[in-house]
TrEMBL record, chains A, B:
Residues annotated as domain Oxidoreductase molybdopterin-binding: 45-218
Reported cofactor(s): Mo-molybdopterin
UniProt-recorded name of the protein: Sulfite oxidase
Keywords: Metal-binding, Molybdenum, Oxidoreductase
Organism expressing this protein natively: Neobacillus vireti LMG 21834
């Protein structure tokens, strides 16, 4: 019996459900900036689709001048764009809402970052043109199934308004981290909508359809809607842009520490521009200290930050992190509670005890 | 690019810390009764030890008539005992304590079950004999490091009283599930103490020492002690036998269900005899319904139970599970809070919403 010393120790995805597969990134144990396939969180509405990828083609139809079916080779041959993007599930941190919200109990790891390469949707639309009456563009995925609230078979479909669709950063991606997109993340083509929560980034694109009115599919008009009221739908509005947010990676919540000097660190991100600053409080928010940003602050990607903490006095401490983005959005002290539990972005909060 | 359809979906260990490695079993996604190495929870006090297993010998010393060093071959050649055992970390379910307790935030998965094969300690002691003054037997592991509360290097060491040490089910194991024990779980020899929380089942045994007094090592006299008071040590007593306990595996906490018939299921176990029965409540404990035990109830192993639930009315439900063992121990409604968060065994509780 031979063993390697020291034995390998590594973190894994954290299961939230297996059918469909929903597993989160072990974000507290991940210090890279480009999440590998193995640790990229997986979020599905249905079982994985089964389609013949060797015959794959991408049709663009509807309110266009020239409907067109693109082959993968055509798409690969067009001018490409490479972009580092944070993808965050709009249910990230759902388990932190109080009162608690039913549904997948995502912790802080329904978020990952990596490098996507593809062609801009704007480029593809130059081949088809758009009717003046075009209002939204619908992206239909190959994944489908029965929704609990109906007996009908639905494909996962989402729309973008024209202006977001033709944003020069909205791409039809075919590579992730310099490799073909892993099947579980949308092979062969995935829409990537930087700055929006990741339900917008439709996987396994089957068809693109230009329409002249508001799309009302259930993943647009029922789910991925903020319902501020528990009992009725008044005041509802759609989930779109990623809220400014931050997560403390180290120390861990409820960790026991010894007196000493520690580097508190974590990540911060926003769908609304760059991260301008991150502040830390060790005293329940009475005072705030600026953090050092250790990676450059780019649009659509997370920044890493840290703060040297001299934990010289024994006792229990609450540590808070608060990010502000370049548009002046700041994390709120309390999250905006909503019935389906989307968009949690309250100031991050952990407790530690120094012994 | 070729992919297998459907793609494999599987659960993984859940990281609680990487140095030392502490990862829990994804108990809500595990329906086997013999946990494989990959999903067996890992609990360490230090980094993995580094020792030359090819020169491995096991000494038994101290208050014995004939000190002896056993080779592995000798141990393998002695009469063996095979036993299916639940190992549960005494910190299992720690994160459920209220008020919250500092330390590793174990969920419900610091528990696993499998088949251990070895020689009884009683058999080995027949070769050495025991002095009349023998009181406890100390098991020292190869794993060592600096404890936060001292600057000294400690090996992980624990003792058993003579009567527990010579129990015919206390074994020095060398196989797990018909294979040599995986290194991370104690290769080449691990003490297995059925019925006690798993801190007693010392891994990587380096030495066995018979002593004439109470062992006072820090993993015996400081850790693994119930401290019922937050502020002082009054009323403390040692962690030993596994409390009667149960865990609801399905549905998941905060799961959304549709009206229909469901099988609520889970496991139950106790260090004090067999599981006598498990009951379910759907109405916050006002009424209790007997569960069907689907595996035979054996000493030291968990039983599987289920209950058919006709969830025909929409609404929010609290589901409780309550096990009783053959010694009449019943899970309490509230856990016995203790400062280090050991032995949580309150009635298990989840919420679901039927839509």
């Amino acid at each position: 019996m031979k063993y390697s010393h020291p034995p390998e120790v590594r973190p894994y995805l954290i299961s939230k459900s297996l059918v469909p597969e929903n597993q989160e990134t072990p974000i507290h144990f991940y210090y890279g900036d480009i999440v590998t396939e193995k640790l990229f969180y997986r979020r599905n509405h249905f079982s994985y689709p089964n389609f013949a990828s060797s015959f794959y083609h991408l049709p663009i139809e509807g309110l266009v001048h020239t409907p067109k079916v693109f082959s993968l080779q055509e798409i690969y041959s067009l001018p490409s764009k490479v972009i580092k993007v944070v993808l965050e599930c709009s249910g990230d941190k759902r388990k932190l809402f109080k009162p608690k919200v039913f549904g997948e109990q995502w912790g802080k790891g329904a978020i990952s970052q990596g490098i996507w390469k593809g062609v801009t949707l704007r480029t593809l639309l130059q081949y088809t043109g758009l009717h003046d009456s075009a209002k939204e563009i619908v992206f239909e995925g190959y994944d489908n199934g029965i929704r609990p609230d109906s007996n009908q078979l639905f494909n996962f479909s989402r729309s973008l308004p024209i202006e977001k669709a033709i944003d020069p950063e909205t791409i039809i991606a075919y590579e992730y981290n310099n490799q073909p997109i892993p099947f579980k993340h949308g092979f062969p083509l995935r829409l990537i909508v930087p700055g929006w929560y990741a339900m917008a980034s439709v996987k396994w694109i089957k068809k693109i359809l230009v329409i002249g009115k508001e799309f009302k599919g259930p993943f647009q008009a029922v789910d991925y809607v903020y319902y501020p009221n528990k009992e009725n739908d008044s005041g509802k509005f759609p989930v779109t842009t990623i809220n400014v947010n931050s997560t403390i990676q180290y120390p861990l919540n409820m960790q026991l520490l010894h007196t000493g000097v520690y580097e508190i660190n974590g990540i911060a991100w926003s769908g609304n521009g760059r991260i301008a600053n991150v502040e830390i409080s060790i005293d329940e928010g009475k005072s705030w200290n600026p953090c050092h940003l250790t990676t450059s602050s780019e649009k659509h990607s997370w920044v890493r930050w840290n703060y040297q903490w001299e934990a010289l006095k024994r006792g229990e401490y609450t540590i808070l992190s608060k990010a502000m983005d370049s548009n002046g959005n700041i994390q709120p002290l309390e999250p905006i509670w909503n019935r389906k539990g989307y968009g949690y972005n309250a100031i991050d909060r952990i407790k530690v005890k120094v012994e």
